[in-house]
Amino acid sequence: MSSRERIAICVLITLGIAGANIYLAGRTFKKTRNLTELYNRIIFSGSSFFNPQSRPENIFDRRLETAWVETEKASADSGAPRDPVAAPGTLYIQMETSFSHFPGDPPSPNPLKRIFIWSGNQASPETFLDYSRPRKIRIVFFYQKLVDIDRDFRLPGLPEFRADRIVVLADSPLAQEIPLDFMPPIESSRRFPENISQVWIRLEIQDLYYGRKYPDRVAISEIDFSEEFPTHDVFAYSR
């Protein structure tokens, strides 16, 4: 074998190794992006399926000038239901938040640490008082385990109840921080997508600060959350 042939073989091997590394890096980047960035986040409320004017997506648009406004009359629940399903007639909003793990080898558990809520319709100081604001809410967490569809030929299962907590909010337009120290530990994962779940949050509104003009319409302007390993910048706003 001539020196020219040996050089050509070495070049081909080097290119093959480089190509394999680029392919693996691309797959890793894609999985990382899928785990840390949510596009077209799913969010819905009790009336959003038949009343598009409620606009639940407004709570994640990072603007206090827009709000989710639920137009159904709030139920006057005096108790706190302990089952994972809301009682009939309960005002609620449910949304995807993040994944239970941060990408890595192996993936690292990435628990939610806090929720931030900007209550009311904050288009103006007047609209804040005109619309009702949540007073007592039940925060419910569901985990929906991921599956590797390419290998397992399976679809993700239904979200399963994880934890809940009753919280009383202040009647304030300022950001209200809710610690999530009541959440159970996250299972470890050896590889994607083992024990990795999509996290869902459901806010059930059980009591209100009633609005002076629209007492039967409750509003929330923005919701955000923080994690142990941040995947986004928490919303910050000052007028």
Model description:
This protein is α+β, with helices and mostly antiparallel strands. The protein has two domains: 1-36; 41-227, Jelly Rolls (Sandwich). Helix content is 18%, strand content 34%. Strands 1, 2, 3, 6, 7, 8, 9, 10 and 11 form a nine-stranded mixed β-sheet that branches. A two-stranded antiparallel ribbon has the order 4-5. A hairpin with a 5-residue loop joins strand 4 and strand 5. The chain is elongated. The termini are far apart. Mean pLDDT is 79; it is low at 20-29 and 74-86.
Q: Which helices and strands occur, and which strands form pairs?
A:
Elements lengths: L2 H34 L6 E3 L22 E3 L20 E9 L1 E2 L5 E2 L2 E8 L5 H6 E15 L3 H4 L7 E9 L7 E4 L17 E13 L4 E14 L12
Parallel strand pairs: 7-11
Antiparallel strand pairs: 1-3, 2-11, 3-10, 4-5, 6-9, 6-11, 7-8, 7-10
